[in-house]
Write a structure and sequence with these properties.
mainly alpha; 6 helices; binds protoporphyrin IX containing FE; Globin-like
């Protein structure tokens, strides 16, 4: 395990860091040829609405903030009916998430974020696919 005390990467331990993380994660998701169109064409998300929700979601999971109160599974179930989410989509989503964390963040909350993303993606995939 890397226990360097001189890392200049921050942890995902504040709303400011989580918001920057989500912006960076979505830059990659939206530019991805496999996943980008699911956001831009299938769901046609309004980023001005969607990104603040994703930021609240991760602030809830990592910081215990109570801002996010929506039915994430139901939203993906609806999406899945329009464009079936495949195992390779989950793999790509998770690889993008993990790479974005590892490129910019380090620490306990960063590890927790990757762990949560992996287990939520596995649950979601199991219940949809
Ligand atoms: C194959 C993998 C995934 C794809 C392609 C995907 C795609 C999407 C899309 C297109 C939306 C917008 C849906 C809409 O507004 O109609 C969305 C919403 C969301 N996704 Fe995912 N997703 C994936 C996996 C995940 C996972 C594993 C998580 C959690 C760890 C997650 C968390 C969220 C959240 C919090 C929202 C916001 C829902 C809301 O409006 O409150 N997604 N996703």
């Amino acid at each position: 395990m890397n226990v360097s005390r001189h890392s200049d990467k921050p942890d995902l331990d504040s709303r400011a860091h989580i918001e920057s993380f989500v912006d960076r994660f979505y830059q990659r998701l939206l530019a991805d040829p496999q996943l980008g169109p699911i956001f831009t064409e299938v769901a046609a998300v309004d980023l001005a609405v969607h990104l603040p929700r994703i930021k609240d979601y991760w602030c809830k999971l990592l910081l215990g903030e109570q801002g996010y109160r929506r039915h994430t599974m139901e939203i993906h179930r609806r999406l899945h009916r329009r464009r079936p989410l495949q195992p390779e989509d989950f793999e790509r989503w998770l690889a993008t998430f993990t790479a974005t964390v590892d490129d910019y963040y380090q620490g306990q909350r960063a590890e927790r974020a990757k762990h949560l993303a992996r287990s939520i993606a596995a649950n979601m995939q199991q219940s949809l696919c």
